[in-house]
Design a protein that fits this description.
The complex is a heterodimer of chains A (574) and B (378).
Chain A lengths: L14 E3 L4 E4 L5 E5 L34 H18 L5 H17 L9 H4 L9 H6 L6 H6 L11 H8 L14 H6 L2 H4 L4 H14 L6 H10 L20 H6 L7 H14 L16 H11 L6 H11 L5 H4 L13 H17 L5 H15 L9 H24 L16 H20 L38 E4 L2 E4 L14 H4 L12 H14 L3 H15 L1 H15 L1
Antiparallel strand pairs in A: 1-2, 2-3, 4-5
Helix pairs in contact in A: 1-2, 1-9, 2-9, 9-12, 13-14, 13-16, 16-21, 16-22, 21-22
Chain B lengths: L8 H17 L3 H11 L14 H15 L5 H14 L4 H14 L3 H12 L5 H5 L1 H31 L5 H21 L7 H13 L3 H13 L7 H13 L4 H14 L6 H9 L4 H14 L9 H17 L3 H9 L5 H5 L2 H10 L1 H15 L7
Helix pairs in contact in B: 1-2, 2-3, 3-4, 4-5, 5-6, 5-8, 6-8, 8-9, 8-10, 9-10, 10-11, 11-12, 12-13, 13-14, 14-15, 14-16, 15-16, 16-20, 19-20
The chains are: A mainly alpha (574), B mainly alpha (378).
């Protein structure tokens, strides 16, 4: 159908197909040598995306594999991830429209497809058909060892001795450097120019699409689902079709040996949004899940804190303007607006509110708690007052249990899968033998593990800690009152606590050292550290990350006072 | 930006190992097995830079778990060991030896012998030379089991011999085992080391076949060659041999002298003191006193009536002869501060009297002499 040449004999364009798959002219029955290109749509199931046409494509290699390009691999990965998200309840629009449009745009911008001359075409990939002398004699082509040492490492693949030894035998054997056509080429690409695709970046794509659709999944939740196995990431390549053989440098690209970190995925997402020249994202308004008011409510519930605190978080949000549409909505490429981490921001607001009401200096909060305890003992009418001490004990207990479980899960994490990975055909048998031994040992010791079977993947849930009002042991604090820490002044409810301590007087320059502040546990009160730890667990990020955000919120909140102080200081110096 | 907290393969396996370690220390074999199951995939990564790689970890940890776990059988254990042998050629002989030890502990002598023979015939390029020491050990233990077989045949013969029977076949077998054992055992004891069991067995063989010279030489080497680590047992074996040979008191005493230096509380010190006391030489008698006092410095000898009687006898002799009283003074000087509380307290005196009258008597004698007048012993 795509064949538009004129017939050599009769100059007509009227082609049909013989049984043998060859084109023949219907007018003069001239049979050509051209066979119909088998357009293989196996890989790309979305019919709206065309295959990357590179002319005649060799279908079968010796081992039943075929040619495939790295970006096809990533496309498959994204597809799987989108399907998983759909299964979690994300609207199908994400997979069918948003994500694949982003992906197409990316391919276009990075010149891998949908453009005149795809980048891969002109460069000969280092493949098996190269003669050994070519590889050695060309001084400009980077050596394989150089490719290996490119520092964007995903763990320890570099140190695999079996690979190193196969590299040294490069010139003798016809070992294949990569199963894909452009594997080696891919790693050679300059990272800055073209925003080379990586596995963590697939999550950036997902998050970007989720943000565009304003789906109720935060980045920390997304990453947690990945670690819990609900979204394919580790070993996704085992779902590649049989024909797509993975070996050599492909492993460096698709095999991950570490879980992606929030910062990494977040920053990449913004880079990507700018790279794709995306317009302003859809507005994040106060009815969106990602709005601080909404997220604060969720986190307050999860942290087992009184609902009344929500009024306070809303007040803080309003005062410092972080609930504004323009603040929250993403404008790609705009370097002056701060990139918003919705989940971390909400957690930081709660921390600041706790500091406002309870001070958290390891003294005041316990004093307040004692007063509340007294009152609760003597007066049971009108519901209990919130006691910090009780809350601390209840939450700490649960947190410790969950943290312990999490630590054990991390230690029991299985990184390998059934699909064998080998750098070259040479060490295939060794790899398979090892795999067999591992499986044997797993069986043997698995039986001795007793009745402790590896639990089924827990159902994905948005709430990790849950507290029920129905519990009669009083372990749920949602309905508790803040009256014990508040007072009325001029008709307004204010905190009894008159003081506040800033996490840091001066913010660091983020561009220089990457952080707004540097958190060291010993320098701060235990209560503060506990609260940070709680949210650190819920969001699965480092406490220092939340601390940074707390500093930012505080500085916004006390802006005027700080400004005055600084001004005063400079005057003195003069 | 540094992502030091990033959870990666290596960190996750490190954490896994520490959980295994905790479980092992607390003898929670099921839990250790659970985590080991997760750890084994480390085999698929290369850790050639590390000192102890995953294959060695798995071997050692797996051995512990399988040995102690209630549901693990010897068959499973052996199967596991066979797998471990294929894992690291550099460790092949070590694993074989460990396997053999476990089999012996389980009473499977024949299997152990088979494994040792198999290991002996192993060759693997330059590894054979590198693992030379382990190979000698393998041969030595095989030799030891040969000795064990020899010993069994010998006993059979001795039993039958009483009836006047002399089974030639058994005798031939016995001699065969002797030859095999002797060759291997001789080899290993040439290398400096602690080879008590090999030495004992080898000497036993030599004595049986009448080669006393060789036996004496072996024992002397073992005890006196400075290249060998200091080993009290070496001197004990030499002494026992000399005694069996009926050697003079002089050579017996010289054999025990170093033992006194290394292990003053050794049980043979009683014999030593007895010999020294009877000696005609002043120096020897003086040494005897030193020896017996040294013995009673140790808590293990506090209630030993024989030791006290030796001391009592010698001290009494000295006091009665009124010569060399300064010997007692010298020995008592460093002990007068703590021996009274250690040996001669009122509580001990009462208890000794109730439990062991002869001990009490001897002690009282000594105490009377050492502590002088005005002491309430009873």
């Amino acid at each position: 159908r795509d064949f538009n040449e004129r017939c050599a004999q009769c100059s007509e364009v009227n082609w049909g197909l013989t049984d043998g798959g060859r084109f023949y002219c219907r007018s003069c029955h001239n049979v050509t040598e051209r066979t119909r290109e088998v357009v293989n749509t196996d890989f790309i199931t979305n019919s709206r995306v065309q295959t990357i046409s590179k002319g005649l494509r060799k279908q079968e290699n010796n081992d039943g594999g075929c040619e495939w390009y790295i970006c096809e691999g990533f496309q498959l990965v994204l597809k799987k991830q989108a399907e998983a998200l759909e299964a979690l309840g994300v609207c199908p629009q994400m997979k069918d429209e948003i994500l694949c449009n982003f992906w197409r745009c990316y391919l276009q911008k990075s010149k891998q497809a949908y453009c005149k001359r795809p980048a891969g075409e002109t460069v000969k990939a280092l493949s098996a058909c190269e003669s050994s002398t070519d590889v050695d004699s060309d001084p400009e082509r980077p050596s394989l060892l150089h490719l290996l040492s490119l520092s964007e490492s995903e763990g320890d693949l570099q140190t695999d001795c079996s690979f190193a030894s196969s590299v040294s035998k490069v010139s003798e054997s016809t070992s294949v450097y990569s199963g894909s056509v452009d594997g080696s080429l891919y790693l050679m690409k300059n990272q800055k120019e073209q925003l080379r695709m990586t596995m963590p970046m697939t999550l950036s794509f997902c998050y970007m699409a989720l943000l565009w659709l304003r789906e109720p999944i935060t980045l920390s939740e997304l990453l947690r689902f990945v670690v819990e196995g609900h979204i394919p990431y580790l070993n996704v390549f085992q779902h590649f079709p049989e024909k797509m053989k993975l070996c050599g440098l492909d492993l460096r690209i698709f095999c991950v040996e570490s879980w992606p970190v929030y910062e990494e995925v977040f920053n990449k997402m913004h880079e990507l949004a700018a790279f794709l020249d995306l317009p302003r994202f859809p507005d994040i308004t106060d009815s969106c899940f990602l709005h601080p008011d909404m997220l604060c409510m969720k986190y307050l519930m999860e942290a087992n804190l009184p609902d009344e605190l929500h009024n306070w978080t809303c007040r803080v949000v309003k005062k410092i303007g972080i609930g504004e549409v323009d603040f929250l909505t993403l404008m790609p490429g705009n370097k002056s607006t701060r990139k918003v981490k919705y989940d971390v921001l909400a957690a930081a607001v709660i921390v600041v509110v706790l500091k406002l009401l309870f001070l958290l200096d390891d003294r005041y909060e316990w004093l307040l708690s004692e007063f509340a305890e007294e009152r609760n003992k003597n007066n049971t009418e009108g519901g209990p007052y919130f006691e910090f001490k009780k809350w601390y004990e209840v939450v700490k207990q649960s947190l410790d249990v969950e943290q312990k479980k999490l630590d054990e899960e991390r230690a029991k994490c299985l990184w390998r899968c059934e699909k064998p990975l080998f750098y070259s055909v040479k060490n295939k048998s060794k790899v398979l033998k090892r795999r067999q031994m591992v499986v044997n040992l797993q069986n043997q010791f698995g039986k001795l593990s007793g009745s402790v079977q590896r639990a089924e993947k827990p159902n994905p849930s948005s709430f990790q800690l849950s507290w029920s009002e129905e519990n009669t042991d009083g372990s749920c604090f949602h309905g508790h009152s803040l009256k014990g820490v508040l007072q009325e002044k001029c008709g307004l409810l204010t905190a009894m606590n008159p003081d506040y301590w800033l996490c840091t007087v001066k913010l660091c320059n983020e561009k220089l050292c990457g952080h707004l502040a540097h958190y060291r546990e010993v320098e701060f009160p235990q209560s503060y550290h506990f609260v940070l730890g709680l949210f650190s667990f819920l969001l699965r990020i480092q406490p220092s990350y939340i601390h940074d955000e707390v500093c930012m919120v505080e500085h916004k909140l006390f802006n005027k006072k700080l400004y005055k102080k600084l001004k005063y200081n400079t005057v003195l110096r003069k | 930006s540094s992502h030091e907290h990033k959870l990666n393969f290596r960190k996750s396996k490190e954490a896994c190992l520490s959980y295994i370690q905790d479980a092992l220390l607390q003898k929670q074999w099921k839990r250790a097995a659970e985590f080991l199951t997760c750890y084994v995939e480390s085999l698929e990564k290369d850790y050639s830079r590390e000192h102890v790689g995953p294959s060695e970890m798995i071997w050692r940890i797996g051995t512990e778990i399988l040995w102690h776990h209630s549901q693990s059988s010897m068959k499973e254990f052996s199967c596991f060991m066979e797998q471990m042998k294929t894992l690291g050629v550099k460790r092949y002989l070590k694993v074989c030896l460990e396997h053999v030890f476990h089999l012996l502990c389980n009473g499977q002598i024949d299997e152990a012998y088979q494994n040792l023979s198999l290991a002996e015939s192993w060759r693997f390029g330059e590894q054979t030379a590198i693992q030379d020491k382990e190979m000698k050990l393998v041969e030595a233990y095989r030799g030891l089991l040969d000795y064990y077989s020899w010993s069994k045949q010998k006993n059979i013969l001795l039993e039958n011999g009483e009836d006047g029977f002399s089974d030639l076949a058994i005798e031939q077998e016995m001699h065969g085992y002797f030859r095999k054992a002797a060759v291997s055992l001789k080899e290993i004891i040439k290398i400096p080391g602690v080879w008590d069991v090999f030495v004992k067995c080898y000497v036993d063989l030599l004595e049986f076949y009448g080669d006393h010279n060789e036996a004496r030489q072996v024992l002397n080497e073992y005890a006196y060659n400075s290249k060998f680590p200091a080993n009290p047992n070496a001197h004990v074996y030499l002494y026992q041999f000399l005694k069996r040979q009926g050697e003079s008191k002089k050579s017996l005493i010289s054999a025990l002298k170093i033992l006194h230096d290394i292990v003053p509380s050794h049980e043979l010190m009683i014999d030593f003191n007895t010999m020294l006391q009877k000696s005609k030489k002043r120096k020897k008698r003086r040494l005897g006193l030193e020896v017996i006092f040294a013995v009673l410095d140790y808590a293990g000898w506090k209630e030993n009536a024989k030791a006290w009687s030796c001391l009592a006898r010698q001290v009494k002799k000295i006091v009665i002869s009124e010569k060399c009283l300064d010997w007692i003074k010298q020995e008592w000087n460093s002990r007068k501060d703590w021996w009274p509380a250690f040996h001669f307290s009122r509580y001990l005196a009462k208890r000794n009297w109730q439990e062991n009258k002869s001990l009490s008597y001897e002690k009282a004698l000594v105490a009377g002499i050492l502590l002088g007048k005005g002491i309430h012993v009873f």
